[in-house]
């Protein structure tokens, strides 16, 4: 028995173990024939090894008859209670215990007495069985020895079974009725548990009510007098436009004014003695007034080339090198003057992530530069129309005011969590998949 147990542990695979069981067990228990029946995922199963044969042929008549006998015995041994241990005991049977159609061929294949030895796995299920046949009945001592060997063989066969996946283990644990019902009830309650709907959106801290500094004229920016994020006071120079064109116009206007003034003076002198020149004096006067207006306009335009700050603030614009030498038109934005203490949160909510956010909802900013800090804000306005962001994503622009005194500095970027209404957990988890399926199916 010790040797048979050692051979079972040394077997390299199920085929080697089955050959050992049906052939070498005769050194402990005498018998004439033995067969190993291996169950499938569910009964009936098939014969896997027969004593005296190196390989089992499923098409042989004897093997087919053994398969039918084993299936009939396996159906008789299926317990009603998983905790019933009587199925693990050896069971002696004779021709009278088989169905009529199988009993008719008993004398052709087997001697008078046979023993059914089930191999039970750790889950109390019959994984396979051994059938022994001989002329004499099996005594109680032999049954005890075979029952002990059955446990060794069942343990060895279990080692060759593929390991069950985590899903299979969970499914097996849920097969018990009471536990399964409890788990399903807990899952149903969890799916119905209300959770706040929230989505993530890129966000940036921007100036609130900034002053837009625009180009007063068509021209080319010649010089920037401030640097990005520089604090400026009222009247401080900001930038200047190129004066070449306007200076030429001003010089030409001055010359035209001087010429018109000289013509008017000469006409006025001749008008004292000549009536004809007295009539031309009114025309010369009109031309002089026109030249004066052109001169004043050129001087005014020349004075507007130098733009100054109309209020205190921080200059907000990009790299100065991007503006110097750049042609601008009237009203084109060049920079902003913002109050560093007067900021707001601007978020860009993608169209696919819109959760019907309303003004008054809350947002939380998580700055990229400060992973341990967050700022709460309340939504003021939401754009009704989606616009493309610099990244090329259609998104709704959201403006929000910070609710606490601690506020981030201007220009901080991060991710904002937009909080929506309360929804069931199942809807929160399946919202995106359902939206994708609905768009794909068209319903």
From TrEMBL:
Q: Which SUPFAM superfamilies does the UniProt record give?
A: HlyD-like secretion proteins
Q: Where in the cell is it found?
A: Cell envelope
Coiled-coil regions listed: none
Q: Which domain of life is it from?
A: Bacteria
Query: What are the protein's UniProt keywords?
Result: Coiled coil
Stated name of the protein: Secretion protein HylD
